[in-house]
Design a protein that fits this description.
2 domains, mainly alpha, flat
């Protein structure tokens, strides 16, 4: 016979499944779309402040790109991005140019603002892909800090000892014979 606590646990588990697989992805999609609308407004404000023209190719291409991101936010998953990267990357590389190439090169402030806008768009979409995927969310929250700590430790170890190894190699490659004391004096002075 099923006890009351088993029924409550089953309903709670069912609620969590509904929350995770139905409500959470649509919440993340809404957040991502809102951030994309804000970035499209930034582009509109650039044109409204007469930094660029509404008729300029860069403005139209920027709006087209943001609109396509807004429209296809729900389709952006890590599985699709991985498949795209593996199978279609060679076909798209020539067509995929930075948004800054559509603007005049004489206005460096505008180019840096457009480059920042493009980076923000990429980060917003990356957040959406990671936050909607249980696998990537666990990977980013649990595994990435551990991997980052290992990499930082490894890099620090290599940076500390690489100078000593380079000095030893230089010492050993010298033509003259030197004693251990001369090496220590050489290593400490260099």
């Amino acid at each position: 016979m099923i006890s009351l606590s088993d029924m409550i646990n089953g309903l709670a588990f069912l609620f969590l499944l509904i929350l995770w697989f139905y409500l959470w992805p649509s919440l993340i999609e809404s957040v991502v779309r809102q951030r994309l609308f804000e970035q499209r407004d930034v582009l509109f404000n650039l044109a409204a402040n007469r930094s660029i023209s509404f008729d300029e190719d860069g403005y139209r291409e920027g709006v087209r790109r943001v609109n396509s991101l807004i429209r296809f936010t729900h389709k952006a998953t890590w599985q699709r991005l991985l498949a795209f990267h593996i199978f279609l990357k060679d076909n798209v590389d020539a067509k995929c140019v930075p948004l800054t190439t559509y603007f005049r090169e004489d206005n460096q402030a505008l180019l840096s603002e457009v480059a920042l806008l493009e980076k923000k768009l990429s980060m917003i979409m990356a957040f959406g892909v990671v936050a909607r995927s249980p696998v990537l969310l666990v990977f980013v929250v649990v595994v990435m800090p551990i991997a980052l700590a290992i990499k930082v430790t490894w890099d620090a170890y290599n940076n500390v000892y690489s100078d000593d190894f380079n000095k030893l190699k230089e010492f050993l490659s010298s033509k003259t014979k030197k004693t251990k004391n001369e090496f220590m004096g050489y290593a400490l002075s260099a």
